[in-house]
Each structure stands twice: as structure tokens, then as C-alpha cells.
Amino acid sequence: TSMTLITIGVLIGAAVIAALFLKKTKSYSKRTTNSNSDFAFHLVERLSILKLIKISVVEKRETSLMRKLSLKIRDNLYALRVINSRIDLNIEPIVVASAMFIIYFAHQFEHIELSKIGVLMVILLRLMPLTKEIMKLRQTLVGNSASFQAVAKAFDWTYQIEEDINKTGVEFDNIQKGIRFENVNYCYPDKDKAALSDLNIFIPAKKMTALVGPSGAGKSTFVDLLPQLRKPQEGMIYYDNHSSKTCNLNSLRKMIAFVSQETAILNDTVMNNIRFASPEASEEEVSTALQKARAEEF
To answer: Global pTM?
Structure first.
């Protein structure tokens, strides 16, 4: 019984030693995930502004920055590998020392025959690789925990903003009275300051309303809220007297003509680009749209 307890103690001791590295592993896992994210965002962003980079003659600066981000990923991955390798480096000597101690203790104090000690050692040696593999798997899991959490957070956010465009509700052909915002609040994720705070405004129907303000005042956010591309975190939007929660999204969006500040041109014919939102539009209707947009010449 005493030898069994000693053996279990050895295995637990090895597990405790491995657990000491888990905290560092978790820290470097988070750093690695953040550095990967920074690199990916930076790369995609820079690829979209290649013309600006060239005309500004900042290629060397941008290349240097990309190299720094790459080296940051390399250093964090290297640190993770070092921590993982220390499991073998620290456990192997402990296993050997523990085996010697068990043999000595069993022979000197328990007076166990060498044949029985040999059986015990065989059992211990069979258990150690399994225990070590479990610890390494746990170390690997912790090493990837930050990435798992980032993906899970993204899925949670996706489910939160999932919308049912086919839901039943009030259908619109047009707005008769106007659109009213009541105590509307909206704050972007990871931002301390709200883009819109306690907004109360009425937009009358059949009139032109201009929204003017400095950059960052919340104009784009306000416009995104109108067709419910974003949802108010507090407050309510009313279309005539119907709240946004009772509206049929399809019918609401179909009556809104939306011109984004980001230009989107599809790799398709000019005709199909123009009638993207109304594929059934005739050539005459497309021609009329071109004339109204003053785009028929080009």
C-alpha cells in the first residue's frame, strides 16, 4: 500500500510541475493570438491601400512594420515551444530520481523482494509516458486556448447579431409620417465612448433631411440604424408608428435606396452592376436610373 501511495505521489508531483508552466503557456497563448490578429488585420488593410503606400513613398516603413509584426509572432511561438519542451526537461530527471528512491525505499524500509520491486517499476514506467502525454496534451490545449476563445467570442457575437430577414411583421410600401428615434444609444464593441447617446430625432416623410457634422460625430452609425444594419442597444426606432422590432426587414429595406460611402464594383457587366438590387429591371429603367444619376455619359 505504501509503495502504491508513493507511486501515485510521484505521478501527482510530475503533474504539479507541469501545471506550473500552464500559467506562462496561457499568457503566451494570448500574446500569440493577439499578434496573429494584428498581423492579419495589418496585412489586409495595407493590401487595400497599395496605391496610397506607393504615392506616399512609405514602402520601407511599411515593410519594416510588417517585419516587426512577423518577428513578434515568431518570438511568441518560440516561447510557447520552449515552455512545452521544458516538460520533458524537468520531468525526466524527476522520473529517474523517483525510480531510484522507490527502489531504495522498497528494499531498505519495506523489505520488498527485488522481483516485486521490478514489477512495480514496470508499472510505473508504463504509467509515466501516459501521464506525460496527458500533461503535454493539456499544455497544448492551454497553448491554443486564447485562439479557441477568440473564435468562440466571434461566434457568440455572430449569433447575437443574427437577423431573420424573413420574419413576419409589418410590411411597408412607403413611409407616410416619418421615422422617429427615441432615446437611442449605440456603442461599438471595445469602445468606451458611445457613437450615439440618448438620441431623439424625428425625420418627416416626403421632405429632404440633411445630417451634417464632423468626422466621428456618428453620422454613418445613424444612417446604418435606419435600415437596421445595426441595432440600437437602447431605445427604439419607429417607422410611422411601428417599432423596429415589429417590422418586416425585407419590406423595410426594399423601400430604402442606400448609397454607401464605400464604392463596390462587381466583376460583372455594367448592366448587372446597375441593377444589382433589382435584377428584373428593364433596359429602359436602367437608362432612366443612369440619367437621374448623371452617369449616362461615362
So the answer is: 0.54
